[in-house]
Amino acid sequence: MNAYYAKIKKLEGKFYSIEYHHVVRDQNQLADYLSKIGSSGIKIPPGVFVQDLLVPSIKEEKEVQEIPPVKQLVLIVPLPTADWREQFIKYLTNAEVPTDKIETEYLTRRSKHYMLVDGNLMRKSAKEGIL
CA-CA to 109 of 20 to 30 Å: which in 23, 71, 79, 121? Predict the structure, then answer.
């Protein structure tokens, strides 16, 4: 709808005068009826012609706005990290721990919930208990 409004605004200077009248939908029964037909999917009555518009009837003019570098957003996407299970498998097989103290504590605490079965990391069930 904005594209149509912009087109009308450009053409205003080519006329001697223009009057705009906003008609409230409640007072425009014909438009209200047609919109209900379109949205509900009921059978179209005789005398009402339908034309499917596959593309807009006017072209939208796209303005390219220059954004100053100060207002530009820079998005840093981290590279994909290793599988989260890898650190648990390394710890359970070779006792390898990360260099960070907090990560090491996290790993040792959480690894109690896992065990290796044929090289696959499995979560211990409640019956097996936590060692």
Answer: 79
SS3 content of the chain, % helix, strand, coil (to 5): 40, 5, 50
Reported pTM? 0.34
Which residues span the domain enclosing 46?
2-64
Q: Is residue 125 part of a domain?
A: no
Burial class (CB in 10 A: 0-12, 13-18, 19+), 15: exposed
Q: Is 18 helix (H, G, I), strand (E, B) or coil?
A: coil
- Asked if residue 72 belongs to a domain, the reply is no
Both tokens of 91, joined, read: 């710890």
Tokens found for residue 83: 């599988």
Candidate from 75-84, 88-97, 119-128 with smallest mean pLDDT:
75-84
Number of domains the chain is built from = 1
Alpha-carbon distance of 106 to 131, in angstroms, equals 16
6 within some domain? yes
State the residue for tokens 């009308």: 8
Is the Cβ–Cβ distance between 45 and 36 less than 8 Å?
no
Residue 71 counted as domain residue:
no
